[in-house]
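User: Run a structure prediction on this.
Assistant: Running it now.
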Amino acid sequence: MPISTSHGVVRVMIERGYLYVTGRRKELYPTRRLVDMALKIAAHDPFLERIEPQLLALREATSETVIVGKRQGDQIVYLVVYEGPQTIRYSAPAGARKPLHSTSIGKTMLGELDDTSLAAWLASAELNAITGYTLTAADALVNDIAESKRRGYFLTRGESVSDVFAVAMPVHLNREVLGIAVAGPRYRLENSLDDIAAQMHEAIAQIETDTRQRTP
């Protein structure tokens, strides 16, 4: 943003009690009011507060990390991350952004596109290698997405984080599409993908049923 605009935003936040200034260098720090506001917003997320019980149940059923993500341009953003209970587990912060082509949730979002839209996206997308396993060729990614649709779930096999596998599926909520993933170390997930996918299907079916019942 322009400097003048930035100064204006900061001034208003100070006046309203969200920031305070300290020290000779005039360093800015958030007040407790800003934290309380953020917690209030998070507690009333229009998507997550409705589906949290099913997500927590899915985490308990799989003993792995459960992630909810949404597409933002050429990336997905993690809306929430429920870390698994095991000592060795996948961990990432809410708000993290990841490429579409290397993540299971990203592939899920690409799988929602029709063939024409997917081809148009691939024509301008940069399929950079995130790990040595990342699919960087357009035809390989298209084939992977097609196979995932036939299989009923999307996968990343160390393509975003080495030695981390993840299973993902879409969930449709009030005309919005989110991706739900279960992620964990390769040695645990590699031989249990179908079992995890079955548990995810049950959770997502329940989420979508509950959503329809709430919608007038």
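The longest helix spans residues 193-214.
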